[in-house]
């Protein structure tokens, strides 16, 4: 275990946790409202590290939907991680042992993915860094869920604090950092456009984030076509 | 939904949220991707971030809202400027959160 790398991972998870606080609290509150106990809500965040998927579960429960529907919706929501995880493999290979990499990949989310890929552009990945980043982000998610479930209806409106913009701000900043090649700009812009267009034409894909998957595949393919050869 | 159904739901969601993340790392780590696929994968991150940024700013509540009433668009401007100028996640985040808090409370 490299202490410095672990510390860096934990440090890099702070902005993620900041963004998770309002989302986790809101999840805890809503879970409470649809009849989940504090233990169930908290354990769901321990076992299922999938914000969008958990919100969808609550929505379907509220509408009186079946367990099967919830699981199926979550297959769709989490499908994008197949793509994220695969794109990380070339970076992890030879640097992080397969067993450790596999275990720690459970902490892969949109946010930890963006932060980690940003770091791996200049630093070799290590299991310690992954552990610091992914585990503390997960702990942040679990703790804010617990807080929300405990607060029940006492919680105020966290929007007033501007925390609702923490994650968008992080995406904007990491996108700026991520731009290395001219083709990266075109890829990001076209993916953004695809995403909105698909979401506009097929609104259902907004809820399950399927538009992100299609837009990512289209954007990356465009990158290969127009990109500079290295 | 009964207590038992809730537990079954939690286990089910857990399985389908774990598998897509861990399977690629578990299966492909011994495998060398061909050059073209590697180039394609190198565009996945900028592509994902382009999509996530667009959705989180232009459709903050899951519905596309490109209007002057969307506070996220206004908060986007100082955040982008600070990100480009300082290249610091901390200052960009601070700019975004403060901008959003001001917009929320005073506009």
Automatic annotation (TrEMBL), chain A:
<dbReference type="GO" id="GO:1903785">
    <property type="term" value="P:L-valine transmembrane transport"/>
</dbReference>
<keyword id="KW-0812">Transmembrane</keyword>
<feature type="transmembrane region" description="Helical">
    <location>
        <begin position="186"/>
        <end position="203"/>
    </location>
</feature>
<protein>
    <submittedName>
        <fullName>Predicted branched-chain amino acid permease</fullName>
    </submittedName>
</protein>
<keyword id="KW-0472">Membrane</keyword>
<feature type="transmembrane region" description="Helical">
    <location>
        <begin position="209"/>
        <end position="227"/>
    </location>
</feature>
<keyword id="KW-0813">Transport</keyword>
<dbReference type="InterPro" id="IPR011606">
    <property type="entry name" value="Brnchd-chn_aa_trnsp_permease"/>
</dbReference>
<feature type="transmembrane region" description="Helical">
    <location>
        <begin position="161"/>
        <end position="179"/>
    </location>
</feature>
<dbReference type="Pfam" id="PF03591">
    <property type="entry name" value="AzlC"/>
</dbReference>
<dbReference type="GO" id="GO:0005886">
    <property type="term" value="C:plasma membrane"/>
</dbReference>
<feature type="transmembrane region" description="Helical">
    <location>
        <begin position="138"/>
        <end position="155"/>
    </location>
</feature>
<feature type="transmembrane region" description="Helical">
    <location>
        <begin position="63"/>
        <end position="83"/>
    </location>
</feature>
<comment type="similarity">
    <text>Belongs to the AzlC family.</text>
</comment>
<keyword id="KW-1003">Cell membrane</keyword>
<keyword id="KW-1133">Transmembrane helix</keyword>
<feature type="transmembrane region" description="Helical">
    <location>
        <begin position="13"/>
        <end position="31"/>
    </location>
</feature>
Automatic annotation (TrEMBL), chain B:
<feature type="transmembrane region" description="Helical">
    <location>
        <begin position="6"/>
        <end position="28"/>
    </location>
</feature>
<dbReference type="InterPro" id="IPR008407">
    <property type="entry name" value="Brnchd-chn_aa_trnsp_AzlD"/>
</dbReference>
<feature type="transmembrane region" description="Helical">
    <location>
        <begin position="88"/>
        <end position="106"/>
    </location>
</feature>
<keyword id="KW-1133">Transmembrane helix</keyword>
<dbReference type="Pfam" id="PF05437">
    <property type="entry name" value="AzlD"/>
</dbReference>
<protein>
    <submittedName>
        <fullName>Predicted membrane protein</fullName>
    </submittedName>
</protein>
<keyword id="KW-0812">Transmembrane</keyword>
<feature type="transmembrane region" description="Helical">
    <location>
        <begin position="40"/>
        <end position="59"/>
    </location>
</feature>
<keyword id="KW-0472">Membrane</keyword>
């Amino acid at each position: 275990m490299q202490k410095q790398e672990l510390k860096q991972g934990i440090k890099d998870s702070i902005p993620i946790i900041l963004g998770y606080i309002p989302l986790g609290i809101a999840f805890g509150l809503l879970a409470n409202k649809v009849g989940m106990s504090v233990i169930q809500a908290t354990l769901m965040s321990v076992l299922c590290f999938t914000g969008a998927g958990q919100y969808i579960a609550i929505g379907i429960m509220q509408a009186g939907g079946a367990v099967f529907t919830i699981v199926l919706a979550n297959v769709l929501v989490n499908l994008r991680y197949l793509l994220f995880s695969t794109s990380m493999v070339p970076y992890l290979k030879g640097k992080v042992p397969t067993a450790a990499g596999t275990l720690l990949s459970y902490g892969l989310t949109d946010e930890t993915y963006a932060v980690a890929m940003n770091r791996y552009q200049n630093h070799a990945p290590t299991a310690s860094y992954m552990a610091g980043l992914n585990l503390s982000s997960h702990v942040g998610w679990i703790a804010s869920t617990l807080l929300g479930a405990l607060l029940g209806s006492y919680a105020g409106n966290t929007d007033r604090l501007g925390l609702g913009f923490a994650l968008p701000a992080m995406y904007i900043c990491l996108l700026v950092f991520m731009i290395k090649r001219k083709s990266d700009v075109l890829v990001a812009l076209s993916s953004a456009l695809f995403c909105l267009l698909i979401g506009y034409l097929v609104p259902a894909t907004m809820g399950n984030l399927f538009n992100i998957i299609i837009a990512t595949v289209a954007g990356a393919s465009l990158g290969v076509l127009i990109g500079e050869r290295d | 939904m009964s207590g038992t159904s809730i537990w079954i739901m939690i286990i089910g969601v857990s399985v389908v949220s774990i598998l897509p993340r861990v399977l690629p790392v578990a299966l492909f780590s011994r495998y060398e991707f061909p050059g073209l696929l590697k180039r394609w994968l190198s565009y996945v991150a900028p592509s994902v971030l382009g999509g996530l940024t667009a959705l989180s700013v232009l459709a903050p509540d899951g519905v596309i809202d490109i209007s002057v009433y969307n506070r996220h668009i206004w908060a986007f401007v100082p955040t982008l400027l600070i990100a480009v100028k300082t290249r610091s996640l901390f200052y960009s985040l601070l700019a975004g959160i403060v901008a959003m808090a001001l917009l929320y409370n005073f506009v």
